[in-house]
From TrEMBL:
InterPro entries: SET_dom, SET_dom_sf, TPR-like_helical_dom_sf. PANTHER family: PROTEIN SET DOMAIN GROUP 41. SUPFAM superfamilies: SET domain. It comes from Citrus clementina (Clementine). Residues 6-242 form the SET domain. Pfam families: SET. This is SET domain-containing protein.
């Protein structure tokens, strides 16, 4: 049976497609069990708080089996509650760990239910259904991952695309939450093609179970709302993403097959040649002229090189998360970004080659590195201030760390936005990174470290950057007055984006050199917004690499120059950085409003950050 959801009417960009939909089942992640009713968001006929189940997937699957099951010795059908279980595929998976996990989990569920027989087919089916259809639930106020939930066909029949036209958000249940009977009707409808054999085996039991379960849980749990991120024509299929869209095709396909047992044939995955975004996410620079002329060996060697770089990045990041040494993390990641694979011997059946290979600034590993570096430099800054905030030298070093953190965060936003302009389904990622960059820049602009650099006689030495408004852009003023920029105003989306970017680009030229001073890798990047310079430049391929000792000396020299220059500044950089931060966070808020709508926490949170409000404001 092939199923999909299609638009039942014309839908514009940035509109809700469904009313809030309640889940079939849901469960907290293990880390959130303390202080909550073990695994229940709400009361069930038999509370699971005492059951010895060790994962959210098992507890969510057990909730499904609280509904009366048909009294039959027949095995469960391929679909339960209208949803595909994938039991046959998962239990025969080439990955034996998957089948073993399902089998052991089903036995644990059976023991919890008092089922002492060896027949755990229904438990396996329920667990497979959860594994196939569950989505992670985020707190709609903080974005924190809380647990998992499974929704009925109104959501679960929405298929995946790597270039989707919709996304979704959550609205958590609250006491006395209203029923949503008066909400606008669903604007999508199922489209199904039945296979006759499957239709017969589906039987009436599935309908019975579904009705019983929905009647018992329809007013509990985290609700989900689907929203358009592109215009959708009447009759067009509605799609969402099941995976991270900033991964290259191979990684997306591998994850989709591992989790859901299907191969994606969407427009982006089927493009030949690959789309610009997918090429950029895997692009590398090589100083070996013969490397790209190796024909059939090229892809093999490139895959091997990428795997080595991936392993290095994963090792550094894992070490950072486990050991908590941000300084070592920064040094190692920047060394990989700057030098890549230098003189690494790679070998295929036909050729051996010593490879000099570096990552493109838009490579997916580079984007991951920027995220980690922004975090690590921020932590280094906080640690330095906590150590001794009264010493000027400590404040100076902490300011440098904060400045570099903001630069990496801003680079991540610019790089993602560059890709977003070629693949509009990346809007949610772009919104998130712009908002984070804006917050980092605003934090930098409010740093007490500025007093060490601004001349005492300068009028900027004591003034607050909040007193200086941008005179070139109307979009920020509109956002701060009304963060819910309405699509009903028929304002062209691209015009608004271009106006934001024009102002951001203009300010970037004034402060990018200041932000990246002292950081060898960042100084190799001419522009974090417009990456067209990469097409005409081979600087990243041929920049001579130095030893760690030489690199440290060069970094120290650059930092000393930067400090002397900053000591003569009049504080205008601070004002520009504040204005840049406001524009970044407002632009991120506008994009987030498209994705999540005026009822999400995003616009109000962003407005509060800009206005530096400490207390929580509820929209």
């Amino acid at each position: 049976m092939e199923m999909e959801m299609r638009a039942s009417e014309e839908i514009r960009q940035g509109e809700d497609i469904t009313p809030p939909l309640f889940p079939l089942t849901f469960a907290f992640h293990d880390s959130l069990l303390d202080g909550h009713c073990s695994s229940c968001f709400s009361p069930l006929p038999s509370c699971c708080s005492s059951l010895p189940l060790s994962s959210a997937e098992l507890r969510a699957a057990l909730h499904l089996l609280h509904s009366p099951l048909p009294t039959t010795s027949l095995p469960p059908p391929p679909r339960l509650f209208g949803l595909l279980t994938n039991r046959d595929k998962l239990m025969s998976s080439s990955d034996s760990d998957v089948a073993s996990k399902i089998r052991e989990g089903a036995r644990e569920m059976a023991r919890a239910r008092g089922n002492l027989s060896d027949d755990v087919a229904w438990e396996e089916a329920a667990l497979c259904l959860v594994m196939t259809n569950a989505v992670e639930v985020q707190d709609d106020k903080t974005g924190r991952i809380l647990g998992i939930a499974v929704y009925d066909k109104d959501f679960s029949w929405i298929n995946h695309s790597c270039s989707p036209n919709a996304c979704y958000r959550f609205s958590l249940s609250e006491p006395n939450a209203p029923s949503f009977r008066d909400e606008k009707k669903k604007r999508i409808a199922p489209h199904v093609v039945f296979d006759s054999t499957e239709a017969e085996t589906q039987g009436k039991s599935d309908v019975c179970i579904s009705c019983e379960l929905k009647e018992g849980s329809k007013r509990h749990g985290p609700r989900i709302i689907v929203r358009s991120i592109k215009p959708i024509n009447k009759g067009e299929e509605v799609t969402v993403a099941y995976t991270d869209l900033l991964q290259p095709k191979g990684m997306r396909q591998s994850e989709l097959w591992s989790k859901y047992q299907f191969v994606c044939h969407c427009r982006r995955c089927s493009a030949s040649p690959p789309s610009y975004v997918d090429m950029a996410l895997e692009e590398t620079f090589s100083s070996n002229p013969e490397f790209s002329s190796l024909s059939s060996d090229y892809n093999f060697l490139k895959d091997e090189a990428n795997q080595k770089l991936t392993d290095w990045m994963d090792e550094v990041t894992s070490e950072y998360l486990l050991v908590g040494d941000p300084e070592s993390c920064c040094q190692k990641l920047e060394n990989i970004l700057t030098q890549g694979l230098q003189g690494e011997l790679l070998e295929s059946e036909k050729v051996k080659i010593q490879l000099n290979l570096r990552l493109h600034p838009l490579h997916h590993l580079s984007l991951n590195a920027y995220t980690t570096l922004a975090s690590a430099y921020k932590i280094r800054s906080i640690d330095l201030l906590a150590l001794n905030s009264d010493i000027d030298g400590q404040q100076l070093d902490a300011f440098d760390m904060s400045r570099t953190s903001a630069a990496y965060s801003f680079l991540l936003a610019g790089a993602t936005d560059h890709l977003f302009r070629s693949e509009s389904s990346l809007i949610a990622a772009s919104a998130n990174f712009w908002a984070s960059a804006g917050e980092s820049l605003l934090t930098l602009s409010r740093s007490p470290g500025w007093k060490l650099f601004v001349k005492p006689e300068s009028p900027m030495s004591t003034s607050s950057p909040e007193n200086h408004e941008c005179s070139n852009c109307s979009q920020v003023d509109r956002f701060l007055v009304n963060p819910f920029l309405s699509q009903s105003q028929n304002v062209d989306f691209q015009i608004i984006c271009n106006e934001f970017l024009a102002c951001i680009t203009n300010m970037t030229r004034k402060v990018w050199g200041f932000l990246i001073s002292g950081c060898g890798y960042l100084q190799m990047l001419k522009d974090p917004i417009d990456f067209s310079w990469l097409r005409q430049s081979s600087n990243l391929c041929h920049t001579p690499c130095c030893s760690d000792e030489e690199s440290n000396k060069e970094t120290e020299y650059q930092e000393n120059i930067c400090r002397r220059v900053m000591q003569r500044c009049d504080g205008k950089e601070r004002i520009t950085i504040f204005q840049l931060g406001v524009h970044c966070i407002a632009y991120g808020g506008y994009l987030a409003n498209i994705c999540y709508g005026p009822n999400s926490h995003w616009p109000c949170k962003i407005k509060n950050v800009v206005q530096n409000e400490e207390k929580s404001v509820h929209c």
